[in-house]
Each structure stands twice: as structure tokens, then as C-alpha cells.
Design brief:
With 52 residues, the protein is mainly alpha-helical. 60% of the residues lie in helices and 0% in strands. The protein is elongated, with a radius of gyration of 19 Å.
Length: 52
């Protein structure tokens, strides 16, 4: 008899991938918020962008 139910094992396998997706989505939301305020998101460095 298995100690962990199959649906729970599948959930745990997918948990890491889902966490990365959620973090990336939150990052994009923060960047869009800052852009809507007309400011650069702190820590973002664009290649080829002029530095002032």
C-alpha cells in the first residue's frame, strides 16, 4: 500500500513549477505597476539603454 496518495504526489511534483510561474507573474506585475507610474523598476538593467 502506498503511503502517499497518487494525486497528492502529482500535486507535489507540480508544486515547484507552479511556484516559479507565480513568482515570474508577480515580477511582471510589479514591473508593469512601476511602468504605469512612469518609473523604472529598481534593479532592472536594459541592454543598449542609455545610462544617465
Amino acid at each position: 500500500m502506498e503511503l502517499i496518495r497518487p494525486y497528492y504526489a502529482a500535486y507535489m511534483r507540480n508544486q515547484a513549477a507552479e511556484t516559479l510561474k507565480i513568482k515570474a507573474q508577480r515580477q511582471r506585475q510589479r514591473e508593469l505597476f512601476w511602468a504605469s507610474m512612469g518609473m523604472d523598476y529598481p534593479g532592472v538593467r536594459l541592454r543598449g539603454a542609455p545610462t544617465t
